[in-house]
Amino acid sequence: MSQATSAPNVLLVAPSQGIKAVKELIAAARQKAGQGNYGHAGVGSGTHITGEMFRLAVQLDVSHIPYKGVPEVLADTATGRIHYSFAPIGNALPFVKDRRLVALAVTTSARAPSLPDVPTVSESAIPGFEWDQWYGMFVPAKTPGAIVNQLSKEMARVLGLQQIKERLAVRGSVPKASTPEQFDKFVRAEVQKITKAIRDGGIKIE
Predict the structure, then answer these.
(1) Directed axis angle between helix 145-159 and helix 162-170, to 10°?
(2) What CATH number corresponds to the domain at position 109?
């Protein structure tokens, strides 16, 4: 029916690594091919798919390490047990602000308002790279069009409220309403993108 929010995953490394840019991370991983790794919040999770999209885009020979959840990934990335990871911006922000982790890039097509100085992966190293940790609202397929359009307009109105914008900003998200037609096109493209990443990355969801 309508997209609701947009938020990136953040590419993170430990400060102890001394890496300050995406291209530096890629170069370091290539220098030690087969020895590097990245962490994610479980096989088939958004952080796993993002990691595979990144790995495939620059042809890195690194292992993926699945964890039970994002907090565990962040903890081991901060200590250097994991060489890098992707995490939802809401989870990553406290670590970045406390300088326990370095944010190299965000995965959305535009920079995140809550991390304005952090570039996108696309502008840093991989043109066209995009992963959006979006949320949206769906309705049953047989819902009358008039009701769908009315709900979509109401969604846009609510997302435009200042208090809603402020509450979303705390988690690093931004409101992003869309028409039913725009959302349908967007979701179909997302399914194709994720399907390709799962296939090319050999991800087997158990």
Answers:
(1) 70
(2) 3.40.190.10
Is 161 within a domain?
A: no
Phi, psi values for residue 65, rounded to 5°: -115, 110
Report helix angle 180-200 to 46-58, nearest 10: 60
pLDDT of residue 104: 98
**Residue 97, pLDDT score:** 95
Q: Which domain holds residue 26?
A: 9-131
> Would you say residue 143 has pLDDT above 90?
yes
Nearest CA to 2 out of 182, 199, 205 is that of 182
Give pLDDT, residue 112.
94
pLDDT-based confidence at residue 171 (cuts at 50, 70, 90): confident
Cα–Cα distance for residue pair 109/122, rounded to 1 Å:
7
Other C-beta atoms lying within 10 Å of the C-beta of residue 8: 33
Number of domains in the chain: 1
